[in-house]
Write a structure and sequence with these properties.
The chain folds into 5 domains: 94 residues, no CATH class; 203 residues, 2-Layer Sandwich (Chloramphenicol Acetyltransferase); 162 residues, 3-Layer(aba) Sandwich (Rossmann fold); 166 residues, ANL, N-terminal domain (Rossmann fold, 3-Layer(aba) Sandwich), CATH 3.40.50; 99 residues, Non-ribosomal Peptide Synthetase Peptidyl Carrier Protein, Chain A, CATH 1.10.1200. 33% of the residues lie in helices and 23% in strands. The protein is built from 27 helices and 38 strands. Strands 23, 24, 25, 26, 27, 28, 29, 31, 32 and 33 form a 10-stranded mixed β-sheet that branches. A 7-stranded mixed β-sheet has the order 5-6-12-11-9-7-8. It starts with a helix and ends with a helix.
């Protein structure tokens, strides 16, 4: 075609269609034909221009032009239309690169075409597609369906394009949780040519409107035709001139996961269209984003507020979001103290088994009587209502008896794990002002508190048991104080009243069907609040509590045997601990009695859970998010095979009586989909931190939006329109490296999706606390057989932008865990250091050909090839969870009699081999 040739295109690049239609122009049939032609995609890249003449029965013609915008600019379409239109009774329709109908028509979702988008911002054919924004909450099943939302605002003051860009960046930063929002701006200038600029202005809660607009204007002027550095820009802003005589569509389909098109016509209002793929952005999120964008444009233009002070949500939206995050409590649950609830169960089921440890079982009547005796003994030793009593005991019958006795004495218990370092135990006693500690350890540090053996409570004379202040504890009195880690390095005690535990049981019992037929395990340390759920969840619903011995918790095979033997029906686990149990189940494939597994304490690793559900169809998996400060659990989410396949990060909706919302840095309610800090209010909020009024005031706040006492969790999340919460990690996992805000969980997710990686941890490290330049990200990988650190790094480099690629990668045999079953970052560094230090020594050591060689094979399988026969397991950075894996490996190579206990006594491959040889000889003799 001559018109194409004048623009430098070969004639074959244009396709000409000439249609004669038996209908008059201006009719509904004619309009439908024009709209269909505008929507029809360009299917062949070697034909970037389609020209259609439509001649109607009354002699009027329509001209429809569809072109690849990366080949022909808007001015080029104008030129072609001018050359071809000619007669006065013809009209021109020009479309950009991919599309909806003419005129930016809005309506219900319509199928998208397959045409490419505009020039610079859209990747070339065959390159990676833009990443879907997590905040969009799109449904992949709806991919290919377009959502469009009209936008109308008062025309902003000049310079309006920088202001539009500033408003878009500001709203995007709120949805993404701050930082440097990325967007691409495509502007049709006065000559009809396109300029493309990639922007990422810095935005904080202190950002001023003038500064933000100036940043955007500077970028638009200085960085024109600057493409995005990587194809994950979530949002594109397209500004085009109005053509009064034509119907012009900038692009036929959204060029980005979310595309905002504005048409400048010089009128009092600016009209636009927000368009997105429903697979990337859900309908409710799109509507909300459009509303917030319009509000931002008008507010920034009118100067009614600074950028950092902009309120995205109006009052009605705020009420709707808060209502979605609230679950109403059951009517008038019984808030009686824990020990009163227990007494009722004991009277109703006196002869039912309450507590078993090894071969010893206590009925509810016996447990009630023994705890009464313990309470009387504590009173005799001077314990009064409101006192704090330290309890440092191994898991066993005495532990539960003493805890219940403390509550019956009107006091609150302060649990301390016997494995804790002496310094931490001493700090807890001093900080809590504890005057009496019940312990069976002769090594408990002397801090002036009286130490009583549990046996001493039952034999103490009762001469003053009924002395002054015999008032029983009430629902509002403290039940326990659990010390949790503090960001300053000082543990802090969380004070939880009796009423909170009663509310937790009232909220969970109906949905989970808790009752007297359940057999629970006490698996966790009482210094970890999961034990509150295990002990009182069982005993206050009439269940049978099985105390798991310390070494059994560290030996998955033995724990699996216990589940089988005791026919356990309800199990509570951190995901890290459950993964080892699941591995045993994969090998053993026994028929467990489990009907319910409750996860908590850390994010769930979904891998392998689908296989578990297939093997155990009668077992439900429940993911529960919670914090010590909100009484163990705050949400619950059943894990289904569909949710597992989708990689869901949802922790569910608020428990009845609890309320959750997501807030920005200023405490403002975030819209659905937006990232922010999770706030928790309602029945589970603790009384605060013991003797830490300053920290209590900082974290336990009166929420201005609701007037309720609320806990700022420090956890990142986003809320779905149905009230479900996605848990996205900790705020302190959101680090800043070279000016970029980085979510460590995002990097870990990329690493664990690699088939060569079994598990991974990403941590922020620095050579000095004051040296910001020395900050780096470090990735620790548990590799599958044949996996390579270099290959994992290469894959991550293909997925992550440069600033998110860890500077340091290291393979470790397993991720060391803390006492509570969470990843121990300090242990990671120690483990790598130990591997490096022992490698030269081990290289020159040759094992003998006896059982030592067999044992060394197992050690090396877990700890790495550098291990020698005389290298001490603990000197190599070994810990209790690694010990579990070494014992499992030893059993697989034939040393079936080895346990974790023996490994602690014989910590080298040579020693454990000699022990196994002697044990075998003894058994044979």
């Amino acid at each position: 075609m001559e018109a194409a040739g004048r623009l430098g295109l070969p004639p074959a690049a244009a396709r000409l269609w000439d249609e004669s239609l038996p209908v008059a122009s201006g009719t509904a049939q004619a309009d439908r034909y024009k709209e269909r032609e505008v929507r029809r995609p360009l299917l062949r890249p070697d034909h970037p221009l389609r020209v259609t003449f439509a001649e109607y029965a009354d002699g009027v013609c329509d001209l429809v032009l569809v072109a690849h915008r990366r080949v022909l600019a808007p001015c080029d379409l104008d030129a072609i239309a001018s050359l071809l239109s000619g007669p006065a009774n013809s009209s021109a329709y020009a479309a950009g690169a991919a599309g909806m109908g003419p005129g930016g028509r809005s309506g219900p979702p319509v199928p998208l075409s397959d045409s490419p988008g505009p020039a610079a911002p859209v990747p070339a054919p065959g390159s990676a597609a833009p990443v879907r924004p997590d905040w969009g909450l799109g449904d992949p099943r709806c991919s290919g369906t377009e959502i469009s939302v009209p936008l109308t605002v008062r025309t902003p003051a000049e310079p309006f394009v920088p202001l539009l860009a500033a408003a878009t960046a500001l709203v995007l930063s709120r949805y993404e949780g701050g930082g440097h929002p990325e967007l691409t701006v495509l502007v049709e200038d006065e000559t009809g040519h396109d300029t493309v600029t990639w922007l990422n202005p810095p935005i904080t809660r202190d950002t001023r409107t003038a500064d933000l607009v100036a940043d955007c204007r500077r970028a638009l002027e200085e960085c024109q035709d600057r493409p995005a550095p990587h194809a994950n820009t979530h949002i594109g802003l397209i500004v085009t001139r109005h053509r009064p005589d034509d119907a012009y569509v900038p692009c036929l389909a959204p060029a980005f996961p979310l595309t905002v098109e504005w048409t400048v016509d010089g009128a009092d209002t600016l009209r636009g269209l927000l368009r997105c793929d429903a697979g990337a952005v859900g309908p409710q999120i799109a509507e909300g984003f459009a509303q917030h964008l319009a509000r931002a444009v008008e507010s920034l233009s009118a100067g009614t507020c600074e950028a950092g002070d902009l309120e995205l949500l109006d009052a009605a939206e705020t009420r709707a979001v808060l209502a979605a995050g609230r679950t109403e409590a059951a009517p008038a649950h019984d808030a009686a103290p824990i020990h009163d609830h227990f007494r009722r169960i004991a009277r109703a089921r006196p002869d039912a088994p309450a507590l078993s440890s090894g071969d010893h079982t206590l009925t509810y009547r016996e447990l009630d009587a023994r705890s009464d005796a313990a309470a009387a003994g504590l009173r005799a030793f001077g314990v009064r209502t409101g006192d704090l009593v330290g309890v440092c005991l191994e898991r066993g019958p005495d532990l539960v008896v003493v805890l219940l006795g403390v509550l019956k004495a009107g006091a609150a218990y302060v649990p301390m794990d016997p494995e804790y370092p002496a310094d931490r135990l001493a700090y807890t006693v001093r900080d809590a002002g504890i005057r009496l500690v019940v312990t069976d350890s002769s090594q408990f540090p002397d801090q002036g508190a009286r130490r009583i053996h549990p046996d001493g409570l039952a034999t103490t004379p009762r001469h003053d048991a009924g002395s002054p202040d015999a008032r029983p504890a009430g629902p509002d009195d403290p039940a326990y104080v659990i010390y949790t880690s503090g960001s300053t390095g000082r543990p802090k005690g969380v004070v939880v009243p009796h009423r909170n535990v009663a509310a937790l049981l009232a909220a969970t019992t109906p949905a989970l069907g808790l009752g007297p037929d359940d057999v629970w395990t006490l698996f966790h340390s009482t210094a970890f609040d999961f034990s509150v759920w295990e002990i009182w969840g069982c005993l206050l619903t009439g269940g049978h509590l099985i105390v798991v011995p310390h070494f059994t918790t560290r030996t998955p095979e033995d724990f699996y045997d216990l589940l089988l033997e005791r026919q356990v029906t309800l199990l509570s686990q951190t995901p890290s601990a459950f993964s080892a149990l699941r591995e045993v189940d994969t090998r053993r494939r026994s028929q467990l009695a489990l009907r319910l597994v409750v996860f908590g304490g850390e994010p769930v690793d979904l891998r392998g859970l689908d296989d578990w559900l297939r093997r155990h169809s009668g077992c439900r998996l429940i993911n529960m998010f919670g914090i010590t400060e909100t009484t163990v659990h705050a949400t619950q989410q059943p894990l289904t095979r569909a949710g597992i396949a989708a990689g869901s990060r949802s922790v569910g909706r608020a428990l009845p009586g609890w309320s959750l919302s997501v807030r920005d840095e200023a405490g403002r309610v975030q819209p659905f989909g937006a990232v922010g800090e999770i706030y928790v209010s309602g029945a589970g909020v603790a009384d605060g931190y013991l003797n830490r009024d300053d920290l209590t005031a900082e974290r336990f706040v009166t929420d201005p939006a609701t007037g309720l006492r609320t806990y700022r969790s420090g956890d990142l999340g986003r809320m779905h329109p149905d009230g479900q919460i996605d848990h996205l990690g900790r705020l302190d996992d959101q680090v800043k490296v070279r000016g970029y805000r980085i979510e460590l969980g995002e990097i870990r997710s990329v690493l664990t999706q690699d088939v060569a990686v079994e598990d991974a941890a990403v941590v922020r490290e620095t050579d000095g606390p004051l040296d910001a330049a020395a900050v780096r990200l470090a990735a620790y990988l548990v590799l599958s057989k044949g996996g390579s650190v270099d290959a994992v790094r290469a894959r991550a480099s293909r997925i992550l932008p440069a600033h998110m690629i860890p500077a340091f990668f290291a393979a470790v045999p397993a991720l060391p865990l803390t006492l509570n079953g969470k990843v121990d970052a300090a242990g990671l560094r120690a483990l790598v250091a130990a591997q490096t230090a022992t490698a030269p020594h081990s290289a020159h050591t040759t094992p003998d050909e006896t059982g030592t060689a067999v044992a060394l094979t197992a050690f090396r399988h877990v700890l790495g090839e550098q291990v020698g026969p005389d290298d001490d397991f603990f000197d190599l950075g070994g810990n209790s969870m690694l010990a579990v894996q070494v014992v499992g490996a030893l059993r697989r190579v034939g040393l079936a009699e080895v346990t974790v206990r023996q490994l602690y006594s014989h910590p080298t491959a040579a020693e454990i081999a000699r022990w196994a040889e002697q044990a075998t000889a003894h058994a044979a003799g």
